[in-house]
Amino acid sequence: MSATGALARYHRRRDFSRTAEPEGRLAEPSVGPASYVVQIHDARSMHFDFRLEADGVLKSFAVPKGPSRNPHDKRFATPTEDHPLEYRDFEGVITPGQYGGGTVIVWDEGTYRNASTDRAGQEIPLAEALERGHASFWLDGRKLHGGYSLTRFRTEEDGEKEAWLLVKHADERPAAGGTPDPRRARSTRSGRTLKQVAAAARGATR
Fold it and tell me: What is the pLDDT of residue 173?
């Protein structure tokens, strides 16, 4: 599927005359290591958005409790629509009444190395690995490091919403700490909290 087709659902859900989110266009894959971003989104329910670059878009998952640095934690994740690569840079307030209305900050960002393989040990492209239901990757970010996996444990064919688990590998980069309080967490871009970003947006509209 082209990036344009992959972004169709993203575009249908948004009125870009009212939201500051990037509209996004056909994108070529990044030169060099692929990127990832983790955003905190204070919408109808607080959650983290975990996004991995693949095939010119960001493959996205909503992770209510956020990715953990502790291998003993299993984080529930729900796939969402693909986002444009420009979304890596988005931080601000989505207009109330718009899809996903609320404040967004960039909590972590960096690059990743695909570690998904088949039974013969041959590498599987990340997008294909996700389609198969299991993807492994090595994160090299500002806050997250080491191996992680996303594994699907429930499909829509089961009569419920598709569901995944995001788990940290027990490698040389584990950490005892889990995930910080999202309301106190700070952006890697601006150093601001969700509250501070929201207050700045209110001040700009007065």
Answer: 64
- Helix ranges (H only) for 1-152 are 3-6, 8-12, 126-132
d(CA 47, CA 41): 6
Q: How many CA atoms lie within 13 A of 68 on its CB side?
A: 19
Tokens of 10: 């993203």
> 107: how many CB neighbours lie within 10 A of its CB?
29
Give the integer Cα–Cα distance in Å for 136 and 124. Answer: 10
| Ranges under pLDDT 70 in the chain | 1-4, 26-30, 173-177, 204-206
Q: pLDDT value at position 13?
A: 94
Whether 91 contacts 42, CB under 8 Å? no
Residue 50: helix, strand or coil by DSSP?
strand
